[in-house]
Structure formats: C-alpha cells, structure tokens
C-alpha cells in the first residue's frame, strides 16, 4: 500500500522561492543582541566564551538533555554539574539546592518540546543566588509566556531555527552583549534544502512517500556500519555562520500564525490520544509552540516500527545521554529517554495528514498491545 511519509521535521514547500519576504521577523531575529550561527550548539559555545566563563565556573545542567548542548558547554571550557528533573520535567529544586557551591555560576534550563518552563520563577531563583540563567529554547523558537518570548527571561537565550521552519540550519543566541558575528566560510546549504523539498513532496505523494520510507532504512543501515552514538553531539566549528540558503529562505517562511498552527495540530492529536501523552505535556499552555507531539510507551521501539508502516516517521529523541552523565543516578530522566517518542505537529501538515497520524497512532498502539497480550498468555 502506498503511503505519504510524515516526519516531525518541518518540510520546505516547492513554491517558497516565489513568496514575498516578510518584513516582520520573530524574536530573537528582530533583537539587536541576536547573533545567528549554523547551529544552536555554536551559539551556546559562543555565549560561554563571551561571558568569560571558564573551568572554575560551574553550570547546573539537566540530566534530561540532547547531549550536544552539554558538549558545547564542555568544549567552551566550563564545568558542569547535573541536576534531576521532576515528573513534570521542571528542574527539581531539592536537587538544585544540594548542588549549590560558591563556584556555581549558571542555571541552564531547557524548554522541552516548545513548552515553556516557568522562566519567571527560575530567573528569580537565580537572582536570589546571584546566578546567571541560560534558557535553552532550541525546541521552543516562537514560544511565549504571557505574550513575552521565551529567551527574554534569562541572561542568555538560545534557539534553533531549522526545527521550526524548513531551512537547512540556523542557531541563534540573544544576550545583552552578544558574541562577534561568525567568521568561518559560508556554506551553501543546497543539499539540505533539496532533502527538505523531497520531504515536502513525500508528505503529499504516496509514491514518493513510500519510496522514501523504503530507501531510508537502507541509508541508515549503511551509516550504522561506522555508527558512533555520540557523533551527533560533536560541536564542529563554532564560528560557522548560517548557510546562504537559510539566510535567503527564512524571511519567506516566517509567519505570525506558525505557533498557533502548531498548537491547533497539537490539540487535534491531544483530542484523539490524550491517554498516551506524558504528564508534562497534557495541557497545552497558551504561548507554547509545540515542536512535536509526545507519546509515552513501555514499547516505544515496537510502536515506532508499526508507525513507519503507516507512513509516520516518529522520533525517539534523546535515547543516548551525553557520556558524562552518570545515568543510573538520574532515574526520572532516564525513564523519559526510554519511553517518550514524538510524532509530527508542524505547520505544513494538512487536515488529512493529521487524520493519517491520529489513525496510525491508534492502530500501532493497539497492535503492539495485542501482540504483547498474546505473548504474555503463551
Ligand atoms: C535542547 C537542545 N539544545 C541544543 C540543541 C543544539 O541544537 P543544534 O543541533 O542546532 O546545535 C539541541 C539540538 O537538538 C537541543 O535539543
């Protein structure tokens, strides 16, 4: 059966070249303290260097993280200390308090999946202890708290542009005295633009979608031969600017309705599958800009495999923690890593594609449940 292929990454419409550039730019792109690099990890590295942080300065970082932000901090020369998150994915105040020593300088918080943390509270917590607040909004570009953008509450805000729009790269930082502009050679970004166009076509055509779904595992298998699970954390050259294609296309893609469209798609899936959603993501705050729709399962890998059969390329993100994390000391974070995966809610999805996702989640979870029941009764 032919199947359109839907992934959590925003796709790039073919007609983007004919669109007008927007005169409106969302925060932080409109801010004078904003600098754009190729990746958010470059932005993090540059922020630490600009603040003059060194090995004597300790950054409190969450045990639930991607890994590349941790690597960027370490490469920038700072020391880190891990804190545990609560069941609601907030920093655990008890864990934080126990980690405070005189050389702690920064609290690093992550706005998971575009859902804002209580940044006002954490800024106050930092102010009371004379600490800096880093807001990692890599998954939360366009998210707001009471009409104020995330990233404006901390001393540093970091954003990924390509997670929200179909551009090839782009990581922004905003701070009062921003780093110098990136100086390394400009990359074109054309290959990644091509791939995002293919993804757009695969979302609309069953033939291309099925081809894509068939070819991808083969490419993955080839890549797996030399697989290094920590490669995705590598910093690369921190002075890399955003690609030429990102700079050309971004202003044609930004739109004031993006966050609301993502929220609408999220609400649609929440109405169908509330019982599968992990607690921190059960109620959608007004200012959230969901990056994806999270699903919790004891059999995440099996459900993901089934979803692919229905054309849905879900993502079990953050399975591998940064190697510096003593994983056994952080059971709550590890439970999120093993059990939570995500399906798409991006703004390019059509109504019929949302139905495809909802139906696929329904069938996949039921099929895995039945398979497990049968296995148990044998
Ligand atoms: C929470 C978080 N911070 C930072 C980053 C770094 O983003 P980039 O891949 O653009 O360097 C990521 C990437 O996935 C992330 O998830």
From TrEMBL:
Which domain of life does this protein belong to?
Bacteria
- State one molecular function term (GO): pyridoxal phosphate binding
| Keywords per UniProt | Pyridoxal phosphate
Question: Which Pfam families is this protein grouped with?
Answer: DegT_DnrJ_EryC1
> Where is the secretion signal located?
none
Q: A GO biological process this protein is involved in?
A: polysaccharide biosynthetic process
Name the family: Belongs to the DegT/DnrJ/EryC1 family.
The protein's name in its UniProt record: DegT/DnrJ/EryC1/StrS aminotransferase family protein
Q: Which organism is it from?
A: Niastella caeni
């Amino acid at each position: 059966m032919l199947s359109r292929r839907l992934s959590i990454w925003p796709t790039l419409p073919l007609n983007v070249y004919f669109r007008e550039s927007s005169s409106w730019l969302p925060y932080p792109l409109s801010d004078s303290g904003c600098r754009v690099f190729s990746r958010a990890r470059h932005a993090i590295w540059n922020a630490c260097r600009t603040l003059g942080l060194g090995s004597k300065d300790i950054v409190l970082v969450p045990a639930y993280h991607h890994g590349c932000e941790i690597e960027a901090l370490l490469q920038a020369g700072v020391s880190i200390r891990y804190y545990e998150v609560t069941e609601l994915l907030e920093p655990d105040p008890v864990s934080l308090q126990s980690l405070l020593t005189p050389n702690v300088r920064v609290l690093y918080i992550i706005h998971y999946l575009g859902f804002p943390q209580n940044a006002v509270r954490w800024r106050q917590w930092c102010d009371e202890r004379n600490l800096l607040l880093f807001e990692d909004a890599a998954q939360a570009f366009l998210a707001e708290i009471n009409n104020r953008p995330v990233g404006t509450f901390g001393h540093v805000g970091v954003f990924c542009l390509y997670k929200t729009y179909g551009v090839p790269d782009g990581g922004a930082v905003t701070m009062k005295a921003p780093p110098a502009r990136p100086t390394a050679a400009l990359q074109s970004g054309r290959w990644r633009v091509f791939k995002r166009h293919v993804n757009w076509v695969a979302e609309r055509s069953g033939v291309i979608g099925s081809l894509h779904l068939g070819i991808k595992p083969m490419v993955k298998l080839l890549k797996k031969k030399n697989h290094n699970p920590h490669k995705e954390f590598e910093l690369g050259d921190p002075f890399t600017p955003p690609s030429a294609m990102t700079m050309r296309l971004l202003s044609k893609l930004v739109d004031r309705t993006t966050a609301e469209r993502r929220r609408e798609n999220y609400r649609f899936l929440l109405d169908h599958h509330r019982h599968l959603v992990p607690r921190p993501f059960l109620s959608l705050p007004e200012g959230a800009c969901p990056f994806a729709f999270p699903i919790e399962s004891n059999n995440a890998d099996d459900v993901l495999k089934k979803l692919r059969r229905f054309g849905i390329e879900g993502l079990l993100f953050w399975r591998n923690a940064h190697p510096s994390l003593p994983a056994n000391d952080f059971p709550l974070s590890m439970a999120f890593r093993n059990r939570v995966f995500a399906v798409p809610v991006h703004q390019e999805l059509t109504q019929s594609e949302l139905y495809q996702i909802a139906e696929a989640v329904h069938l996949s979870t039921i099929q895995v449940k039945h398979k497990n029941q049968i296995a148990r009764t044998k």
